Amino acid sequence: MVGTTEQSRLHPLGSAPRPALPGSLSLSSPETRSGPSIPWPGATRQDVSSLSVLPSFGFLFDIDGVLVRGKTPIPAARTAFQKLVNSQGQFLVPVVFVTNAGNCLRQKKADQLSHLLGISQDQVMMSHSPLRMFKRYHEKCVLVSGQGPLLDIAQDLGFCQPITIDALREKRPLLDAVDHDRRPNVLVSGDFSVVLFGEPVRWETSLQLIIDVLLTSGYPGNPYEQENYPHIPVLACNMDLMWVAEAQSPRFGHGTFMVCLENIYKKITGKELKYEVLMGKPSRLTYQYAEHLIRAQALQRSWEQPIQTLYAVGDNLMTDVYGANLYNRYLESSRTGSKSPAAHCRSVLVCTGVYNPHTEVPLDTRDSITESVFHGHRDFRFDPGLVEPDHIVPDVDAAVDLVFQLENFVPN
Ligand SMILES: [Mg+2]
């Protein structure tokens, strides 16, 4: 694991002091604009001579537990954001907000952050955002499972023929296994797929109908087929087993729904349910897409320095830290033998959300990532090295300070 001895690292229990940085780097002060002499206490001549005014790094911010708790903004987010924008409100570094939420549109999440600062929906990445790249499914009929404005989400992502579980259920009384005329014509065998956006509200209905669709290759009125493996494609977003709401204990997340679906499928068929793709943190695809958005922002702003390092700031060991570290491993392995512009991806854990070293009722997911208890998804291996953060800081404001110092960054 990288960075275990870095001076900026705090003790996991939070007993070590916050990094020795001022609350503000005075980024907009006249001194820094005309060439900062002492950007932070203790800066050496070498530090000053290597200061950067253009970013060669980008931020991936988790939202819940980092910027907000429920609907309440975390105070440190406001001060952090003041350091990230110039006097015109433009970002000084590329920033993407990466959330595993999936039951709403990007714009709704952007609006949720509007009390902190104006951000564009193009900076927000939901767990389903990478589906935009899966154009080969966009023309096909897809059964979508989840809650919220499912059809709006599907259409916004590019799907032309989404059908919800509810719509399928309404058609179901009309379905007749032997009367072909009564099949709903939106279901086309061989050109059908299932997209799992998030946890639905009536699990038994969704589980039953998804299994029906899988075992009939898209004709849920027909009898189950013997030869339908591999089954039609299943694309799934957000693997979080649990999430923290107002209740004392964690609540079922979409990952729990997926456990049910996987086990029912296996019990009935004796075979593994296979995913065409899994997205949302900690999947590599999500980080690749986030990196793509970061680079697009840098290009748009004509920042010519290549982006070398991504800093993923989050509050959850299993999603934010595991995902960032997994992506960093991928970048390291892809650097050798290819000309990939691969950057590093560094994990920064904050203590304002799920991971809280001070709370009496432990919300820490560390207890759920052991060899015997692993809350990660079936297709992700337990690996203690992947849940070790590169840095632990009290909050997002400290995270921004830390990264600016690590990068010797003083914006113009
Ligand atoms: Mg979070």
From TrEMBL:
Listed GO biological process terms: glycerophospholipid biosynthetic process
Ranges of compositional bias, category Low complexity: 15-30
UniProt keyword annotations, A-Z: Signal
Keyword Signal assigned: yes
Cellular compartments per GO CC: mitochondrion
Region (Disordered): 1-42
Keyword DNA repair: no
Annotated PANTHER family: CDP-DIACYLGLYCEROL--GLYCEROL-3-PHOSPHATE 3-PHOSPHATIDYLTRANSFERASE-RELATED, HALOACID DEHALOGENASE-LIKE HYDROLASE DOMAIN-CONTAINING 5
Family: Belongs to the HAD-like hydrolase superfamily.
Protein's recorded name: Haloacid dehalogenase-like hydrolase domain-containing 5
Species name: Cyanistes caeruleus (Eurasian blue tit)
Gene that encodes the chain: LOC111935340
